């Protein structure tokens, strides 16, 4: 076993016990291979990037189930392939639903100006959302605020936090998952 393989195995063990630096090193090591695999499959940079981000998020959530009898890269590619298949199924289902609902129904034009009640509900929802965001760990709060309240791009957030763009993408995805769990508890 060469030094790189040994290092990967050590990082996997550290990641299994929640070491964030090990997660980042694994992400940096395998990002290009997973992204290239998806780009070849999807022929679309946005889809490839989205699926790659979700691949690493899912892999890190399920790293405890990783069987070391298999190559880590193979495990990641399998997750990535399954996510792509799920995306295709979802799009087909969505397209079929859209075709069924666009029959001979008359489309009604609605007044989209928010009522006073709508504005009050929006303000209450924003207050609740801000309260829930404050329950996240500070690094997750910061990345959510920079992305959704300051409307910074991934690259701008990466410069602001002095981290690689790939880490920002995964951190943001993880922050959104944790925030969704907090919101569901209410």
UniProtKB/TrEMBL annotation:
Domain RNA polymerase sigma-70 region: 33-93
Superkingdom, taxonomy of origin: Bacteria
Signal peptide residue numbers: none
GO molecular function: DNA binding; sigma factor activity
One GO BP annotation of this record: DNA-templated transcription initiation
Alphabetical list of InterPro entries matching this protein: RNA_pol_sigma-70-like, RNA_pol_sigma-70_dom, RNA_pol_sigma70_r2, RNA_pol_sigma70_r4_t2, RNA_pol_sigma_r2, RNA_pol_sigma_r3/r4-like, WH-like_DNA-bd_sf
Alphabetic keyword roster: Sigma factor, Transcription, Transcription regulation
Occurrences of domain RNA polymerase sigma factor 70 region 4 type (ranges): 131-179
Gene3D superfamilies: 1.10.1740.10, Winged helix-like DNA-binding domain superfamily/Winged helix DNA-binding domain
Family: Belongs to the sigma-70 factor family. ECF subfamily.
Name by which UniProt lists this protein: RNA polymerase sigma-70 factor, ECF subfamily
Organism: Flagellimonas flava
Taxonomic classification: Bacteria, Pseudomonadati, Bacteroidota, Flavobacteriia, Flavobacteriales
């Amino acid at each position: 076993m060469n030094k790189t393989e040994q290092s990967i195995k050590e990082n996997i063990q550290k990641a299994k016990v929640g070491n964030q630096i090990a997660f980042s090193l694994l992400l940096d090591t395998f990002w290009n291979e997973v992204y290239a695999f998806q780009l070849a499959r999807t022929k679309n940079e946005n889809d490839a990037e989205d699926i790659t981000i979700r691949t690493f998020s899912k892999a890190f959530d399920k790293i405890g189930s990783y069987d070391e009898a298999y190559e880590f890269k193979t495990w990641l590619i399998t997750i990535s392939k399954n996510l792509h298949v799920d995306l295709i199924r979802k799009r087909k289902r969505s397209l079929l639903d859209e075709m069924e609902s666009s029959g001979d129904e008359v489309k009604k034009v609605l007044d989209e100006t928010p009522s006073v009640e709508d504005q009050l509900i929006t303000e209450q929802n924003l207050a609740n959302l801000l309260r829930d965001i404050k329950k996240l760990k500070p690094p997750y709060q910061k990345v959510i605020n920079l992305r959704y309240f300051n409307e910074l791009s991934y690259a701008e957030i990466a410069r602001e936090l002095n981290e690689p763009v790939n880490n920002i993408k995964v951190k943001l995805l993880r922050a959104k998952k944790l925030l969704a769990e907090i919101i569901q508890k209410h």
